[in-house]
Specification:
With 379 residues, this protein is mainly α. The chain is 76% helix and 3% strand.
Length: 379
């Protein structure tokens, strides 16, 4: 919608520059008949609305015994808009083409810079609305409200571009001098105030977009950090799991190797006691395997926790888009507390480490008892 308005304003500005050039080149009456026709039609509209307001007041006093001025305030507001347009169309503008070489100014009405077809369209629409107001089946307030919108569009699309063209010439050309009338100067002040408001709005929207983009970048960066942590935890889990298999293999193979080939280290041990002692040489590796398994389990749970957080971070923006701002902040806070709190891991380290698992300790105790019994029998 804004692109369409900008395009229409640009066309009007171009037409105003061309019309100004025609007027300065000597065609001082350019567009004057069209302006006069608009002025006459708008004056007739103001007269008709004024007469209708007077009848409303008179009938209210006669039939109801009272009159409330606020009841006709919308019509008065519409009349004010139309009267403002009348004043702008007929406002005199003086232009000195060359302050160094020429004397005197070219004086014309501001409405002459408007597009010819725009002026003709406004006059035609005004006459059409006057005819509607005279029809008994038409709502007077509805017709005037609709016409006030038309007038507002004409001011923004035809008069404002003409004023901007004159203001730009005055600001950028030190050889030309432009004197705006009282009404055009007042309108220029409104235009500038509106432009400042638009710039503030655009700046606010840009700042909001920057904040949203920064938030998205921050969430994406945080998700990447969690993903990197997840990958590290997975690598650690693989390492410690491999260590478990190595330790178990050592616990199984070492006693077999000692029992089969050892001739020096445990050669003095024989009988049942020797077999038991040789069998127990692999027991520390079982304890080490249990420790490695516990560490691997912790890394797997941490990797799973970080994987869930990564998915939640990646899906956060898509999930909260479209929700009210309060809900977005609440969901983000909940995820933030979850992301930066201690993870709930089932194999959390208690600070105490047993080198041998409970089952291995029972096996060791049983083996020691068997060795004692075997020594007693041998004695």
């Amino acid at each position: 919608m804004s692109e369409i308005l900008d395009s229409a304003r640009e066309r009007s500005s171009k037409a105003s520059r061309e019309n100004l050039r025609l007027i300065l080149d000597g065609d001082i009456s350019f567009n004057r008949p069209q302006v006069d026709e608009c002025v006459k039609a708008l004056s007739d509209m103001i007269t008709m609305i004024g007469e209708a307001t007077e009848r409303y007041e008179k009938n209210s006093l006669e039939l109801r015994g009272f009159f409330v001025p606020s009841e006709t305030s919308p019509l008065n507001q519409h009349v004010a808009v139309i009267a403002e347009t009348l004043d702008l169309l007929t406002d005199n503008v003086g232009v000195v083409q060359d302050l160094y070489r020429r004397d005197g100014a070219v004086t014309f009405q501001l409405g002459q810079l408007c597009r010819t077809d725009g002026l003709e369209a406004l006059a035609g629409i005004t006459r059409e609305r006057i005819a509607k107001m005279q029809a008994p089946d038409q709502s007077l307030s509805g017709v005037t409200s609709d016409f006030a919108s038309v007038i507002g569009g004409f001011q923004a699309g035809e008069i404002d571009p003409a004023i901007r063209v004159l203001q730009e010439i005055s600001a950028n050309n030190d050889q030309m001098d432009v004197s705006l009338g009282q009404h055009a100067n007042s309108r220029l002040t409104k235009i500038q105030a509106t432009r400042v408001s638009e710039i503030e709005g655009e700046a606010e929207r840009s700042l909001e977009n920057i904040r949203a983009a920064a938030h998205g970048v921050g969430v994406g960066r945080l998700a990447k950090d969690f993903e990197a942590g997840r990958n590290d935890e997975r690598s650690s889990a693989k390492f410690w799991t491999s260590a478990v298999f190595v330790c178990v293999a050592a616990a199984v193979s070492l006693p077999i190797l000692i029992h089969s080939v050892d001739t020096h280290l445990f050669s003095q041990l024989s009988g049942t006691t020797g077999v038991i002692v040789k069998a127990l040489t692999g027991l520390p590796f079982l304890g080490l395997a249990g420790y490695c398994a516990r560490i691997a389990s912790q890394h797997r749970e941490a990797a799973r926790h970080l994987a869930i957080l990564t998915t939640q971070m990646d899906a956060l923006r898509a999930y909260v888009d479209g929700l009210p701002g309060e809900d977005q902040r609440e969901i983000t806070m909940i995820l933030g507390r979850r992301a930066f709190s201690n993870p709930e891991l089932g194999t959390r380290d208690s600070g105490q480490v047993n080198m041998l698992p409970d089952d291995a300790l029972k096996v060791l105790e049983k083996a020691v008892d068997l060795a004692k019994e075997a020594q007693k029998r041998s004695q």
